[in-house]
Design goal:
Blueprint: E1 3-9, H1 16-29, E2 36-43, E3 48-54, H2 58-68, E4 75-79, H3 81-88, E5 92-93, E6 99-100, E7 111-120, H4 125-138, E8 142-146, E9 150-155, H5 158-169, H6 172-177, E10 180-189, H7 201-213, E11 219-221, H8 223-228, H9 233-239, E12 242-244, H10 247-263, H11 271-278, H12 282-293, H13 297-315, H14 320-326, H15 332-343, H16 347-355
Parallel strand pairs: 10-11, 11-12
Antiparallel strand pairs: 1-3, 1-4, 2-3, 5-6, 7-9, 7-10, 8-9
């Protein structure tokens, strides 16, 4: 039978003993529905619980909670066993199926996600991506997803994640000599959210945005990552080019990428329009984007478009002209020139190199 994971959200602090009793109530009637409750995580401070179960379908799984105690899940998603294990790592449960942290306290369920990507065109990408994976695993990470030029990894411990990310930045100069930019982001989040459809969907998305926003050779870490590494933040920041964000900065980045995604093919992607959409002055926009990326808004917009262009060239059958128009360029020739200036080859040549 397939596996599912759900999220239960409360308005107040969640008592692990109460959750334990609810779990036992589920176990008492689960056989009537062909469902099996395997184990669960409790985050007392944030008032959240996450159950792993197997059953015929998510609707049937939901009926068990409704019938046993009425505390229905806010969301339930199907999960693959291998993906679940990659994200969550090796876990141990107590006699009542509650997953425990190393210190014997309830495991809150959140994990730190590291996203790293090599942006550029080079025959060395497979070898260099393997080096990223080996470094992450050596520092306690687990590989979740591997593409030609990017990795998604999960960590149970925030400090280990930061140390792994910081270690990766040591390769930035070597990669730059190969014509590649190494982008790294760290985000911490819950396995299931109220609106997510896959495990750690929102966390992976945030880590990706932070990677694209980070300065070359640096790392951006989310506000929640900052909170769980509180005792070591200064040490980590001094040792590596690692910047911990405040919640307001993280929210600004989320809003910035939302606007950029909405406007990318409109031809209206300019500094002036970005200020209007974000509700900030020109000087504020320069200060905010410059703080976390080291780039000007114009440079940030250009990099966003060209990186998107590189991805489209590799993953779609679109012509160069179609890609240029999708990115909001009025003339394909302008796109081709900017692309060549950035990546050293024309879009047509890049397509041959990337798809051969």
């Amino acid at each position: 039978m397939p596996y599912f994971m759900d999220i239960h959200m409360g308005s107040n602090a969640l008592d692990p003993d109460v959750v334990r009793q609810l779990h036992l109530m589920d176990k008492a009637i689960e056989h009537q529905y062909g469902v099996k409750h395997l184990h669960y995580y409790v985050n007392p401070e944030e008032g959240m619980g996450f159950c792993l179960l197997s059953g015929p379908d998510k609707e049937t799984c939901a009926k068990v909670h409704e019938a046993s105690h009425g505390n229905v899940a806010s969301n339930i998603i199907e999960v693959e066993d291998t993906v679940y294990k990659s994200f969550m790592g090796k876990v141990e449960a107590d006699a009542a199926d509650m997953i425990q942290s190393i210190n014997g306290q309830p495991d809150p369920g959140y994990r730190v996600v590291l996203y790293a990507e090599l942006v550029g065109i080079s025959d060395s990408i497979p070898r260099l991506t393997d080096l990223l994976v080996a470094t992450v695993v050596k520092n306690g990470g687990r590989l979740v997803e591997l593409t030609r030029n990017s990795i998604v990894c999960s960590f149970t411990d925030g400090n280990s994640a930061c140390y792994a990310a910081g270690t990766l930045t040591g390769f930035a100069k070597e990669y730059k000599r190969e014509g590649l930019d190494l982008k790294i982001g760290l985000a911490t989040g819950n396995p299931v959210t109220q609106h997510g459809a896959t495990l750690f969907e929102e966390t992976v998305a945030l880590a990706t945005k932070l990677a694209y926003s980070a300065p070359l050779g640096g790392v951006l870490a989310s506000s929640k990552t900052s909170a769980i590494c509180q005792g070591n933040r200064q040490k980590l920041s001094e040792k590596f080019r690692l910047s911990f964000l405040r919640k307001s900065q993280e929210e600004f980045i989320n809003k910035l990428f939302y606007v950029l995604d909405q406007q990318i093919n409109s031809g209206l992607m300019s500094v002036e329009n970005l200020c209007l959409q974000l509700g900030v002055s020109r000087s504020q926009l320069y200060r905010k984007i410059g703080f976390f990326s080291g780039a000007s808004p114009k440079e940030f917009i250009r990099e966003f478009r060209l990186t998107k262009g590189l991805n489209l060239i590799e993953t779609t059958e679109q012509t160069v002209s179609e890609t240029a128009y999708q990115l909001g360029f009025n003339k394909p020739a302008i796109f081709s020139k900017q692309f060549k200036d950035r990546f050293g080859v024309t879009p047509s040549s890049a397509k041959k190199l990337l798809t051969s």
